[in-house]
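User: I'm writing a short report section on ligand binding and want a predicted complex to refer to. Could you take this sequence and flavin-adenine dinucleotide and write out the structure as tokens? A short remark afterwards would be nice.
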Amino acid sequence: MNEIKRHYNLSQLHTFRLPAKAESVTFLTSSEQVAQIPADAYVIGGGSNTIFLSDITRPLVCIRIKGIDVKEEAQHWRVKVGAGENWHQLVLFLNSNGIDGFENLALIPGTVGAAPVQNIGAYGRDISEFIYSVRVWDRRSKSLSNFSNEDCRFGYRDSIFKQNPMRWLILEVEFLIPKAWQPELSYGELKALEEPISAKDILDKVISIRSAKLPDPNVLPNAGSFFKNPVVSQKKFESLAARFPTIPHFNLPNNEVKLAAGWLIDNLNLKGFSIGDASVHKQQALVLVNNGKATGADVLNLAQHIKISVYDAYGIELEAEVRLLDEKGLISL
Ligand SMILES: Cc1cc2nc3c(=O)[nH]c(=O)nc-3n(C[C@H](O)[C@H](O)[C@H](O)COP(=O)(O)OP(=O)(O)OC[C@H]3O[C@@H](n4cnc5c(N)ncnc54)[C@H](O)[C@@H]3O)c2cc1C
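Assistant: Sure. The structure tokens for the complex follow:
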């Protein structure tokens, strides 16, 4: 049976830990009970990419479906995982069983079911590279179906699920992981690693870099990168580079350039800037933190201040990467 809790304190269910309450939270432990979920319920996994800005009247569903099934094939490992499994624990499990490929994605908080939603990525890898299919419950047609990788329409921190937040519940993700492992060392501090190298070496390195760089949400509540890295045209980039010669950038196909939102914010000296008890993290300008007593208004005002400052300085409209919810539902900045 699904477990239903009333007047639940949401600071336990999201890593930004604002003191919001939900009228009801259903903990979904089996896909067989998915049909009982109210059509207007908002879904969460680990709440590490979601901020509850105020009390929530609409029902909440917390996905807790477990299970890992590994099958060996000639060229691949086929791994089916329940949406409620913890992402980092899955990465450790696969690595310790000699199934390599996910090591660059270690220590990303949250659940397996949320991983396809924003196509989680880090250190040069996106999870869409390994997703074979996604098992979903369609709340519109009230039926189960499987999405192929192509059906998911993955993009940079994007997918069909992110574009339609109230439609599908992800129940299980099926990964196809090539046995012919290739290390991915093209990004940031991983470039300094030298081959021959094992997946465990990369895993350890990623864990140590992330532990040193990013605030642990259990110590300093946060939701990871608050804004997406903006993508601009080559022409726009050239005009910015003329004014800011050291601006970090990454060339994309289609004559587009990805910029580092953290650099844009840091360059405006906003590290450590606070409104109420919400701050820009002192070391990571892309991460906003709750110093303990932040309110939803503090977070919104701080995010707006950053957005306006960045627009005034560079003519770039930052977009939130985190999902912001108030009593009316999802809001955009
Ligand atoms: C310290 C820190 C570091 C982070 N680093 C990274 C990083 O390097 N790369 C990266 O990509 N992300 C990163 N994140 C963001 C976050 O970890 C990921 O987005 C993660 O996938 C969120 O998982 P979750 O279960 O906590 O999602 P939630 O916050 O619970 O949900 C996120 C979204 O997915 C939807 N959702 C969740 N589960 C389901 C489901 N089963 N079915 C349908 N919809 C669902 C929710 O409705 C919501 O829209 C970081 C976050 C933190 C706090």
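A remark for your report: Residues 15, 43-50, 63, 83, 108-111, 113-115, 117-118, 120-122, 161, 165, 168-170, 214, 217, 222-224, 323 surround flavin-adenine dinucleotide (CB under 6 Å). The first helix runs from residue 87 to 96.
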